[in-house]
Amino acid sequence: MKSIPLVRLGRAMRRILGTVVGGAIVIFVLANVQFGAVAPMAVNGAEGYKLDVMMMADPACGFETIENDLETMNTSFCLGEQGEWSGADLLMLAEGLVILLAGRLELPQNKAWAKRLRKAGFVVGCMFFSLAILDRLGFLPSSASSDSLADFFPIDVSPWIVQISFAAFGAFLMRGPKYWEAEAVVQTRDKLERRREKAGKFRGSFSKEKHDEKALDRVERSRFLQRDKNLAMKRRRSKLLVMATCPYCQGAGCKKCNQLGVF
């Protein structure tokens, strides 16, 4: 039973860590690119500039070198103009948003919210597909085009692959329901049958046909076993939670309970 609080604690810590790391990345990108607040804190005299994240790995882009370049030439190739978004900045912002939202978003069970999510996905898919078309026609600025995004990848990637990826992701979000309504009804019925079968096995493990009178008397005398006997299966969102001793192995640990001895 002690492992269950540890699992919950691990999930909570993972969500907190993802929120902190993802939020820090998003705040850093916005403060650096849009407001130009990071470069002046790291380099003297860099007001109105942003740090070029791609160039920070270059040995020639040390903070002292950048300061010398600003003093002698009033510019540095390691800095960028404030408010000028590049492909690397957009990709870093997207990574921060993914880390921030990962594990915190769940598909809604309510039909109304499911329809709203479907509409939002369709709108986002249209945006990605439109960006791919505009990039192909050459209407996007060079800093946000597929050429700039392709340079950010650690491997050699052609710009047309980036365009196709954007178009494919947009088409994936815009696609209609995967199954027809009749197939969805059949799948729902099969899922309910599997749940009923599992619930029947769980309740049958405490029946008189499976245990002798001595075992049943021991259950009646024990407070803990009495609680397990009266427990019922519950469903919270999309996860099946049964806080009870595993009826298949009686707490010894098996594949059904993932060697925990409890559900």
List keywords for this structure.
mainly alpha, 4 strands, elongated, two-stranded antiparallel ribbon, 263 residues, single chain
Characterize the structure shown.
By secondary structure, this protein is mainly alpha-helical. Among the domains are: 1-105, no CATH class; 181-241. The chain has ten helices and four strands; from the N terminus they run H-H-E-H-E-H-H-H-H-H-H-H-E-E. The strands form two sheets. Strands 1-2 form a two-stranded antiparallel ribbon. A two-stranded antiparallel ribbon has the order 3-4. The N and C termini lie close together (9 Å).
Structural topology:
Layout: H1 3-34, H2 39-42, E1 49-51, H3 63-73, E2 79-81, H4 87-101, H5 111-137, H6 146-152, H7 159-174, H8 181-204, H9 213-221, H10 223-230, E3 234-236, E4 239-241
Antiparallel strand pairs: 1-2, 3-4
